[in-house]
Known about the structure:
Elements: E1 3-7, E2 10-13, E3 18-25, H1 31-35, E4 38-44, E5 51-56, E6 62-64, E7 72-77, E8 82-87, E9 96-103, E10 117-118, E11 122-127
Parallel strand pairs: 2-11
Antiparallel strand pairs: 1-3, 3-8, 4-5, 4-9, 5-6, 7-8, 9-10, 9-11
Amino acid sequence: xxxxxxxxxxxxxxxxxxxxxxxxxxxxxxxxxxxxxxxxxxxxxxxxxxxxxxxxxxxxxxxxxxxxxxxxxxxxxxxxxxxxxxxxxxxxxxxxxxxxxxxxxxxxxxxxxxxxxxxxxxxxxxxx
Length: 128
């Protein structure tokens, strides 16, 4: 089992930046076992379905949805079992609850069903 806890959300003006953090823990989670998980960030805006934002594979390869490319950066710190989402040039349409997710698959991609573990989410609100 893997527990994920997001933090770093808040209220920011359009054009601003935020850095989301996701802390992974678990009774059987080691630095090695965390390093082989693929990690993802998803978001659910008001009245919208939850959608893929970014992912980082065990190899370090990253993927992003088109709407955040060039503005968001996903990264991981395996030694501390952390995943981050640096968000810049934020827009009101980025307002959403942001969720961290973990997958033991090599290539889960943007498919939510491929991620077995989810955090509770952190709210990001971008004002215009």
